[in-house]
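General statements about sequence and structure are easier to judge against a single worked case. In the encoding step, the backbone of a single protein was reduced to a row of integers, each denoting a local shape. The record that follows shows the chain in one-letter code together with its fold in token form.
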Amino acid sequence: MDFNSKYEFDAPPEAVFDALTKPETVAGCLPGCEALKPLGDDRYEAAMTIGVAAIKGRFRGTVAMRDMQRPDSFTLHVDGKGSTGFAKGEASIEIAPNGSGSTVAVQSSAKVGGPIARVGQRLLVGTAKMVADKFFACLRRQVEGNSSLS
């Protein structure tokens, strides 16, 4: 499953990068996120509940931030499993100046298996887009309304 999207922020790339790499902000904005605990070396243990169609499950796994180039880019590696299946993926995050603000480009690829994968590609991509849109809307409010993140 591939998912690509862009999000606009009325904030400089440094503020957006810092918010995207701050575990408290990420956990607070990610729908269904129950915990994001530091493991060291930009790795985190994550727990979240997510639903796709009639299938809802709790996932546990790890999230790692790699290739961090503040304020321009980083890569996320995600590996999780739960009673309704597994997900393993990677997302490339690029942040570019755009006038007085920033544009965040997300390119991701994931492999999903188990019962949750049986709902179909279209529903999985739709759910991924919905979660990402909600996450970035929350993050935008945090970054644009809180100068302490910059």
Summary: The first strand starts at residue 2 and ends at 9. Residues 2-149 form a domain with the Alpha-D-Glucose-1,6-Bisphosphate; Chain A, domain 4 fold (CATH 3.30.530.20).
